[in-house]
Specification:
The protein contains eight helices and three strands; from the N terminus they run ααβββαααααα. The chain is mostly helical. The protein has one domain: Lysozyme (Orthogonal Bundle), CATH 1.10.530. The chain is globular, with a radius of gyration of 15 Å.
Length: 153
């Protein structure tokens, strides 16, 4: 898949899920995956493809797509458009669940506040470094991340 084709998939996924494309790009850069990649985690799950979608999503995706989990696994791992679309869907779900964007980014990585907050900081820093968002004053981000850390699960 060419970079231009992947970029098109990312923009379409962002629009279809109503999530910021800049956030998907930030997540992709932090995750550092690529098409066809599978990374074994310490808990026995795998992270798949460019957006490193965790295999814990395979049962739900298989049901949604009416395919077996092995097929869902291969689609997510080996098709860049499917991978980024699933990532946008997960992000949207997490934004809806937490009620705000930083919470959605945090939960993309982990629902554990300390892990999720550190991840969101990385994603936002990447977005700033690549000029995808204006530099946010530290106090504004600190307020947002503090609100996330104190939000009841």
């Amino acid at each position: 898949m060419t970079p231009a084709a992947f970029a098109t998939c990312l923009i379409v996924a962002a629009q279809s899920q109503s999530v910021p494309a800049a956030v998907l790009i930030g997540i992709m850069r932090v995750e550092g995956g690529h098409i066809g990649q599978q990374v074994l985690n310490t808990n026995g799950t795998y992270d798949l493809g460019p957006m490193q979608v965790n295999t814990t999503w395979m049962p739900e995706l298989a049901r949604r797509w009416n395919v077996d989990e092995r097929t869902a696994y291969h689609w997510v791992r080996d098709d860049g458009c499917v991978n980024v679309d699933v990532a946008a869907w997960i992000l949207k779900r997490n934004i809806t669940q937490t009620g705000y964007l930083v919470g959605g980014i945090s939960h993309y990585h982990s629902a554990t506040p300390v892990l999720g907050t550190a991840y969101a900081r990385k994603v936002i820093a990447v977005m700033q470094r690549f000029g995808l968002v204006k530099n946010t004053p530290a106090t504004q981000y600190q307020a947002a991340s503090s609100a996330y850390e104190s939000k009841p699960e």
